[in-house]
Amino acid sequence: MRGDGGASKLLERVRRRVGEELSMPPRRCEEHYRHELKYLISYGQKADLNLRLAPLLEQDSHARGGCYMIRSLYFDDYWNTAYQEKVDGVLMRKKYRIRIYDYSDRVIKLERKRKRDSWIYKEDASLTHGQFDRILAGDVGFLEHSEEPLCREFYVEYMSNVLRPRVIVDYEREPWILDAGTVRITFDMNVRAAVDGFDVFDRGLPTLPVLEPGKLVMEVKFTEFLPQIVRDILPGKAQEITAASKYVLCYDKASYLRGFGLLAGRLERAERVT
Prior knowledge:
There is one protein chain. By secondary structure, the protein is of the alpha+beta class. The protein has one domain (38-273): VTC, catalytic tunnel domain (mRNA Triphosphatase Cet1, Chain A), CATH 3.20.100. Helix content is 34%, strand content 32%. It has 7 helices and 10 strands. An 8-stranded antiparallel β-barrel has the order 1-6-5-4-3-7-8-10, surrounded by 5 helices. A hairpin with a 4-residue loop joins β7 and β8 (183-194). The longest helix has 28 residues, at 246-273. The radius of gyration is 22 Å and the shape is globular. Mean pLDDT is 84; it is low at 14-30 and 260-274.
């Protein structure tokens, strides 16, 4: 009996310890993990939140006119691991993307976003327009000896796991910050999937909305803790909290094109046979 009781207590301690580990950021000093919360809210709720946020936070100085447009090209491997792990709720996962702002090539970032439970860590490396064009064309050999570790790791993933472009995600972001950016609240509006191509600089790509009408994504990101004064104005517990990924939503929205492409290919082959 004593042995059983001791084993039960040990198991309980292990479970508690695992729970603590999952609720804490990884202990790597050189990496700055942030906590992330997501809400699916209405534009009416956004207007109310804007009134409450204005006295406490300030808008990001990079947002001219209050917001900026973000376009990201997401990559996934042969097995669509990033997509599947998100859908399956895997606690530790990563994804690669190339991101630009307002269709400009002044800032082009290769990014890797890693997630551990609700903690996120982002790495980035700058690219030129020419380098992006080479990656899009499948000419990635120059990344193998890049000075940027992220570029070299992207190259390994590209070659070994058949990392390839999957979908472009577009949206307008309204950012608010507190305490030099330790707390960041963003409203992502008009989230849509760009289809019929992977060139992020092509303004003519058709887009498809992915959220229900009147909805937007609110994200709250913070480092050590979220000040109570900010926590008090966030949507309450009854508010829908979403773990939906923009990548997953847009990939699903554009999936019909892949289906049509497959069907068209089959029809073309059938016509050749006949």
